[in-house]
Amino acid sequence: MPLYEHVLIARQDLSNTQAEGLIEHFGTVLADNGGRVIENEYWGVRTLAYKINKNRKGHYAFLRSDAPSSAVQEMERLARLHDDVMRVMTVRVDKHEEGPSVQMQKRDDRERGDRGDRGDRGDRPRGDRDRGDRADRGERRERTERI
Question: Model pTM greater than 0.85?
């Protein structure tokens, strides 16, 4: 059977247990239609890139499944009809990655580098910044008050 990855975004006013209950609900929908959930992850409440239905945040959930396309279509149909689900995205993959998803992996500070140390930058030319004004503007006009 084909392999899929699903991301669900639920409303922010749900509790954590309700959001995790949605994961279980859609997992059983897949199982009832001949598929199976290999792994699921609850990513927590995260800020959205833009407002969706007047919500700025949402509960994110991630599912890895092995299911026929009919089961995935039924799960997506029910997710789109569910009042608590704001968005659902499904991607077909060739194989599932081992271990936790990228969102759940702990970032290693050594990979990002120390943001405070920028190294020796040496002397930088200051250019026209020493003059205090911009020569290309010309003289400044007097302001007149409008009544």
Answer: no
